[in-house]
């Protein structure tokens, strides 16, 4: 928890975010103040020292907020596990960014450790000393709460997080933050004839779910809702088109990161009482090769009546998303955004440092999303979305096929999804940054919760 305070408890851990002068902090010794002045005159970006049990950090103020977040990560990395609180001294957004990086770096997923209590970081309080608005602190705390929830969900194995359990977890969020959650079970999904979701689910003994989330403030700035669609494949074996285990299937508990992103975004929006009407659609299932699993060569009739020839059962995310995107048409949205760990091609193209952005929405929307990505350092790379890519998705025996050619797989997948949406559409392929096999500063190892901070920044400025 990040809190504003007006007083400092002497000998507590402290991080100075220093500009041209050393701020006066009652309780800080003259020796520390003199060291801070020396640091200002130096050329270092950061430094620290340990006085007995106390850690003291010096961070050079920088308008590049990502550098400040990374500096916050470095504070967490150097602090002992037993540290219960740390004070950050500075001004405004730079101080807040240090606290953000520190808080994100303090996240741990310890649920399945026998000695979890021993491993757990003791840090629970980050105190800010300096000029910062309380509203911005609350906004950050609520957003981070949603990011941590999403990280937990992505890190959970399918032995716990089935499609049914994912819907229950979202229901819990709705109760906590005051938004509506409706869960459609298999019988209702069958009645709606959501062929894509049902086809992917055929190889599993666990039922699918389709979760509808709605957050509607009293006076929303948008006359028609923004619909957020998240891919909820809670585990992906590839189905009959089986994935190799090493560095592929073993990571596939993370294939519902899009669902976590969109549910987490609505959770954060509700906690922060944003004036934006949002509807979330979460199709969820695992993809298994058992039972009566759907097969390459099958032709599936989707929710909107489109027929799809299945050529690869591992291209399952687009099958379940297509039904949800088609369902969005009945909601008459002004904008539809989906997030999905959709293609390996996205990872090959740009790695783990950014997500792929594409769609047919107005370029002003695209630019605003790109700017939000820069602000929070969840960067987006916009890809072309020409109709020629759609031609690669045409089948010789059905309306569409579920895979294209060898090249630009992330774009052909996006064009497949576009077919099902009548409103302005944005597709985010978050396959790269959603789950990290090795820690990257404050993003950590495992689920990152990517997309929530980006979309919250975008929605805060939505008009």
Structural write-up:
The structure is a single chain. The protein has 463 residues and is an alpha/beta fold. The chain folds into 2 domains: 2-132, Leucine Aminopeptidase, subunit E, domain 1 (3-Layer(aba) Sandwich), CATH 3.40.220; 141-460, Aminopeptidase, CATH 3.40.630. Helix content is 36%, strand content 21%. The protein is built from 15 helices and 20 strands. Strands 7, 8, 9, 10, 11, 14, 15, 16 and 18 form a 9-stranded mixed sheet that branches. It has a 6-stranded mixed sheet with strand order 1-6-5-2-4-3, with helices on both faces. α9 links the parallel β10 (232-236) and β11. α6 runs parallel beside α9 and α10 packs parallel to α14. 51% of the residues are buried.
